Amino acid sequence: MQHKWWHGKTAYQIYPKSFCDTNGDGIGDLRGVISKLDYLRELGVELVWLSPVYRSPLADQGYDISDYYSIDARFGTMADMDELIEKARERGISIVMDLVVNHCSDEHEWFRKACEDPEGEYGQFFYIRDWHEGEPFPCNWRSYFGGPCWDLLPGHTDKIYFHAFHKKQPDLNWENPALRREIYKMINWWLDKGLGGFRIDAIINIKKLLPFCDLPADRDDGLCDIRAMLKRAEGLNVFLDEMAEASFRKYDAFSVGEVFNEKTEDLPKIIGDRGCFSSMFDFSEHLLGLDRRGWHRSRLPTAEEYKRAAFAAQARSAGVGFLSNIIENHDEPRGVSHYLPEGERSDAAKKLLGGLNFLLRGLPFLYQGQEIGMENRTDWTLKDFDDISTLDQYKVALRAGCTEEEALAAVSRFSRDNARTPFQWDAGPGAGFTAGAPWLGLNENYREINLAEQRGREGSVYEFYRSLITLRKSADYGETLVYGECVPYLPEQKNLMAYFRRGEKTLLVAGNFQAEAQDMLLPSPARTLVLNNLDELSAERDTVHLKPWQLVVFEL
Ligand code: ISL
Ligand code: CA
Question: Domain limits at 525?
Fold first, then answer.
């Protein structure tokens, strides 16, 4: 495997709307991000992915872009963006932006022009079809946010357009080379500004099963999960390779794909040395327990399931490339609320989960607030939610026969808004996030869980994450943690998640993923205790007595 400039880094995702607000309008902004660059340097991160800040009506929080070449006024100006890229660079941090090119906003100029003249040049940028009242749509696929993928083209009664997500997010027609050229031009325009690269949104959706056709319905709405068509659509890689060749490769840019359900044999094409992306997120843990019928049928994964999914992903990517490892992002509940059982969200357990994920082979991504152990809100009421998919899932649950209480409980557990509550900087008003009223309600636990309380306090979750990042960069263990192979140890021992990292040195990472103590046999004598999430360690000869939620790293 070729070594790359980004391999040894630790990445960090910022959700700008909820990170830091500098003008009191309740919305985080780019000046807020700039003001926290020294904080990010102190934490040790060197790659920062910004969720979208482009001009947008924010129907899907910026994942609906109306102008790829400007910054939304709510986030700041292009001058702020340039300053951010520059000041980050001075601090050794590369900025990565979100590339949302499966769709744009219905307020994008291309879509406006397509509505004016569906037969014209811009009509070809979208999927527009003739349709008459009473006729079936060209396909019965269900959009990700509910309902059919088709809606009337604004200004027309006999034409419809395709949207895989919200109706304010019309899909771009990647079959059209003119559209693809526009996209590559835009990517390069940003890379010319000195951007480190891109996180590529929802990218598997750009290849449709064409011509559009019905697939077997999977709910009583007569529709079929759109993911069923993704399995059958062929040729995604041709587009992705063309994009990489026309943009990323020329700049040696970093790219990380939001890719789901890939086939193992396709991994080299995605993240291998000549792959179309540098990396892709490992979502296999996140998919555990998710039920396609909706959040009301979904459940939380167990420690054993988590371990097996993580080890399987490690095995698939071994010798191929780098997965990007996460416990959460802006689309997920908080990792500590999702993977740790109710009542067990202690600092020790949070560190165990974070450490086990961080030390896997691949590129570790932290999501804002993860480093202080931020949790899901537990007091949601329906009117507190802003996220469109949460509101849809609430309806799905009611339609399936849940009571309002059950539906609220289901969406509270899985809502994307859990990760979108403002960053908890301190215990003061607005949690130090805003001097105004935050756009999305704070998690009330900000008085206990906040950065100011943890910064510099020995034993805090924050200081633990700092030590993980330091370890990954250290002269002693950096090579082993970045490039060493990952080999499971005692995978059959229940609720023990242990693995070797074998490079220049051999490390053993071992976590007791449960609320009871358990013993672990050492494979060979330990030379050094490199990391411990508790103050003590009890061991005799070749046996380590792991306390509940204890995580240790030994050099063997
Ligand atoms: O389940 C999925 C795929 O199996 C979906 O999660 C889907 O891929 C995902 O929702 C895509 O997310 C991204 O694109 C969305 C946006 O709402 C999300 O915030 C973003 O991360 C539309 O742009
Ligand atoms: Ca603001």
Answer: 485-555
Supply the DSSP symbol for 251.
Answer: H
SS3 117: coil
Ligand 1 pocket by C-beta < 6 Å: which residues? 60, 63, 100, 144, 165, 201-202, 227, 258, 260, 330-331
pLDDT tens digits, one per residue of 420-436: 999 999 999 999 999 99
From 49, 68, 165, the mutation candidate for ligand 1 (largest count of ligand atoms within 8 A of CB) is: 165
Are both 399 and 306 inside the same structural domain?
yes
Nearest CA to ligand 1 atom 19: 331
- Residues with a catalytic annotation lie at 201, 258
Task: Tell me the residues surrounding ligand 2 (ion) with CB < 5 Å.
Answer: 21, 23, 25, 27, 29
Statement to judge: residues 450 and 489 lie in one domain: no
- Asked whether 84 and 34 are in contact (CB, 8 A), the reply is yes
Mean pLDDT of 136-153: 97
- Structural tokens at position 415: 């809502």
Closest C-alpha to ligand 1, atom 22: 63
Q: Which ligand is located closest to the Cα atom of residue 262?
A: 1
CATH number of the domain encompassing residue 506: 2.60.40.1180
Give the largest CA-CA distance in the chain.
79
**How do residues 193-218 score in pLDDT, each as one tens digit?**
999 999 999 999 999 999 999 999 99
Count of structural domains, the chain: 2
pLDDT tier at 447 (50, 70, 90 boundaries)? very high
Residue 296 forms part of a structural domain: yes
* 465 occurs within a structural domain: no
51 Cα to the center of ligand 1, angstroms: 12
What is the pTM assigned to this prediction? 0.97
Please, are residues 295 and 411 in contact by the beta-carbon 8 Å criterion?
A: yes
**Helices 388-399 and 404-414 meet at what angle, rounded to 10?**
140
- Calpha distance 224→231 (Å, rounded): 13
Tokens (6 digits) for 327 = 């416990």
Taking the centre of ligand 1 as the mean of its atom positions, its distance from the CA of residue 372, in whole angstroms, is 25
Q: Give pLDDT tens digits for 15-66.
A: 999 999 999 999 999 999 999 999 999 999 999 999 999 999 999 999 999 9
Q: Do 298 and 194 sit in the same domain of this protein?
A: yes
pLDDT value, residue 451: 98
Question: Whose CA is closest to atom 5 on ligand 1?
Answer: 144
